[in-house]
Amino acid sequence: MKQPVAEWIDLEAHLRPETDLERQLLQDPEFLQGLLWGVPRYGHPEGEVYKHIREVLDNIDRLNVDWLMRKRLRIIAFAHDTFKYLEDKSIPRDWLKHHGPLARRFMERFTTDEAILDTIELHDEAYHCWRIKHIHQDHDSAALRLNGLLERIGEHRQLYYLFFKCDTKTGDKNPAPLNWFEQNIPGIEIVAI
Q1: Rounded-to-integer distance, Cα 154 and Cα 74, Å
Q2: % of the chain surpassing 90 pLDDT
Q3: Residue 44: strand pairing partners
């Protein structure tokens, strides 16, 4: 009889948790279901979410950041795409049922750190702003949405940027949104990975 995939994939060995919270997340059945979801697709040729998270964690390892920044980035990495399996993709989109807000609501049980929660919720927002501006050529809507993003992330702009970079530099993702962000967003210290 074939075993369920969660029983033969050692997620702890793969993701190498560093904190009690990371280990706790790897024990939660709802979280585990999200980690194991996914098939190879554009932007995510690796398939399952846990494999993408490993790539993001590897990028975080390449950063020269202090312990608090590393801890925050890792928690964001663990949670950011884990609720894609619950996302409602019906049209018109209900953005409250996007995987970012779903992940935020889940993580509110574990942290009150608004910088972490906002970055989890809004981690794809810079990409959406870029798409609206460059693909749909709706410069006014893009500017409004970008202003809303920058207002929400406030003084945590560097955290958001570092996560956006670590997330974008995975799989076969288009680097153009990241390049645009680095060239146009004031108040960030650009880093190399």
Answers
A1: 20
A2: 89
A3: 41
Note the pTM of the prediction, 2 decimals: 0.94
Torsion, Cα of 54, 60, 66, 68 (10° steps): -50
Nearest of 148, 135, 144 to residue 177 by alpha carbon: 135
Q: How far apart are CA 22 and CA 72, in angstroms?
A: 11
Task: Report how far apart the first and last C-alpha atoms of the chain are (Å, whole number).
Answer: 44
Helices 157-168 and 49-61: crossing angle in degrees, nearest 10, is 120
Q: Three-state DSSP class for 23? A: helix
Q: Which whole-number Å values give the CA distances from 170 to 2, 86, 175, 181, in the listed order?
A: 31, 22, 10, 17
Residues in the chain: 193
